[in-house]
């Protein structure tokens, strides 16, 4: 398969159904998923809390999605965001589409003036994209080795991270 014509662009309103389908398909067999990622994105969208949602488009078809949302840090630090969920349609995984989506999203986040970004996920994958573990931010209930961060300016603060309530099904 060639992905030479891959385009990463901002999500448009008309993309919402395709995005949900990709999230459902990508997480269907994921061992740590409760298969609610499409609902998380839907709730974030309805709450106006999706930040820089990105889609990967191959020959006119959406094959991947990544988004950010604002996170709260305690003690308070402004300008921090969480990456996720990230999904690539199963048939297209392993072709650097996920990496391209995240890379494009992180560039846009930096350009927006964000202070930094956190992510909960596989360290082997996210370390390639500039995230490091053990930097001082924590997320209650997450094993430290799976909670990673990167600062775009300054350093990563020592703080506890909270995600938007949409992640947990309570608006
Ligand atoms: C995780 C995901 C978004 C990655 O997208 P992708 O396009 O398949 O990934 P890439 O091709 O950019 O991956 C680059 C590298 O990371 C590796 N990688 C991808 N996912 C990985 C994972 N979960 N754990 C460890 N390594 C991983 C790939 O094997 C590849 O390594 P290689 O270059 O040595 O072959 C995609 O596989 C997916 O949708 N998975 C199901 C949903 C999911 O787990 N989402 C992330 C949690 S929010």
Automatic annotation (TrEMBL):
- CDD domains attached here? NAT_SF
Keywords recorded for this protein, A-Z: Transferase
- Which residue ranges does the record assign to the N-acetyltransferase domain? 6-153
SUPFAM superfamilies given in the database record: Acyl-CoA N-acyltransferases (Nat)
Give the molecular function GO annotations: acyltransferase activity, transferring groups other than amino-acyl groups
Q: Which PANTHER family match?
A: L-AMINO ACID N-ACETYLTRANSFERASE (PTHR43617), UPF0039 PROTEIN SLL0451 (PTHR43617:SF2)
Write down what this protein is called. GCN5-related N-acetyltransferase
């Amino acid at each position: 398969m060639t992905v030479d014509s891959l385009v990463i662009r901002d999500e448009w309103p008309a993309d919402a159904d395709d995005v949900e389908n990709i999230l459902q398909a990508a997480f269907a067999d994921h061992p740590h998923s409760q298969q609610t990622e499409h609902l998380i994105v839907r709730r974030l969208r309805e709450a106006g809390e999706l930040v820089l949602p990105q889609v990967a488009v191959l020959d006119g078809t959406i094959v991947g999605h990544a988004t950010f949302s604002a996170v709260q840090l305690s003690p308070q630090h402004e300008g921090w965001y969480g990456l996720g969920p990230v999904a690539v349609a199963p048939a297209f995984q392993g072709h650097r589409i996920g990496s391209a989506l995240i890379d494009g999203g992180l560039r846009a986040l930096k350009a927006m003036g964000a202070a930094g970004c956190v992510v909960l996920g596989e360290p082997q994958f996210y370390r390639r994209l500039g995230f490091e573990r053990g930097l001082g931010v924590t997320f209650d209930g997450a094993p430290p080795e799976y909670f990673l961060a990167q600062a775009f300016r300054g350093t990563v603060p020592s703080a506890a991270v909270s995600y938007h309530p949409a992640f947990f099904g309570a608006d």
